[in-house]
Amino acid sequence: MFQFINIAQAAEEGGEGISVHLAPYVLGHIGNMPITSTLLTSWLVMLLLIVGAFLLNRSLKTIPGKSQSIIELTIGGLYNYVVETLESEKLAKKYFPVLITIFIFLLTMNWVGLLPGVTSIGYFNEHGHLIPFLYPPATDLNIPIAFAFISMAVIEFAGIVALGAWKYGGKFINFSSPMSFVVGLIELISEIGRIVSFSFRLFGNIFAGKTLLLVAMFFVPLILPVPILLYETFVGMIQAGVFAFLTLIFIKLAVAEPH
């Protein structure tokens, strides 16, 4: 379980500088499952997206207004890009909902983590340490790893459905020649390594941004955090896009015929 303490709080306690520690923010338990600040924030994001989708669906019109037109053009442009990348409208219809869901979920999750009150509203435990109710979800490595497993499950599913289990498995286990066997093992290691690259890329960028914001608020409050906050808003969008884009590219590679 990976989570982080407030840097400013650590500085006040240490008295000699800033330190960052891996430590869980556990709010309580349901049975044996710990309920953490990052998990609670993820649930909040889910609720916001469900309510937002419900309200958006109710407001759709046959003759769209400006806002609806912009949304339709954006979604349509992204869909066309997926069709061009996969070179198949059938595949695009199957996997576009997953890709856009990953993007919207991660984008909302990253932006909610930047809202005022996140990391600063909570309660003090018996040791006088602040336990925040909400914390940026991607700073908990467990959550990026969960998204990585979801993406890899979709990628492997796409490959197996498109090529069949036997042919798709032949990309990684091939005894036709020593060279094919070695290349297959390299491909298998690369496939497994994607879980690490997926999760640590998202985790590293969001954690680094949050750490930078906390340091800026501690040393230069009210001035320096503003441009950093704007930058991190952009980074949050880019990281969500990169995650979805890489999932798309790996789906493209998975459905390709083995050579």
How would you describe what is shown here?
The structure is a single chain. The chain is mainly alpha-helical. It has eight helices and four strands. It has helices at residues 7-14, 37-59, 66-86, 89-112, 142-163, 165-169, 178-219, 225-255; strands spanning 26-30, 33-36, 122-124, 130-132. The longest helix has 42 residues, at 178-219.
N- to C-terminal distance: 41 Å
Helix content: 55-70%
Strand order of the largest sheet: 1-2
The beta-strand count equals 4
What gross morphology would you assign? globular
Mean pLDDT score, rounded?
A: 85
The number of helical segments is: 8
Integer count of domains: 1
Approximately what portion of the residues adopt beta-strand conformation? 5-15%
Radius of gyration: 22 Å
Given the helix and strand composition, which structural class is it?
mainly alpha
Main pleated-sheet profile: 2 strands, antiparallel
| Unreliable runs | 1-17
| String of helices and strands | HEEHHHEEHHHH
Short description:
Strands 1-2 form a two-stranded antiparallel sheet.
List the helices and strands and how they pair.
Elements: H1 7-14, E1 26-30, E2 33-36, H2 37-59, H3 66-86, H4 89-112, E3 122-124, E4 130-132, H5 142-163, H6 165-169, H7 178-219, H8 225-255
Antiparallel strand pairs: 1-2, 3-4
Helix pairs in contact: 2-4, 3-4, 4-8, 5-7, 5-8, 7-8
Looking at this protein, list some descriptive labels.
single chain, 259 residues, mainly alpha, two-stranded antiparallel ribbon, 4 strands, 6% strand, globular, disordered N terminus
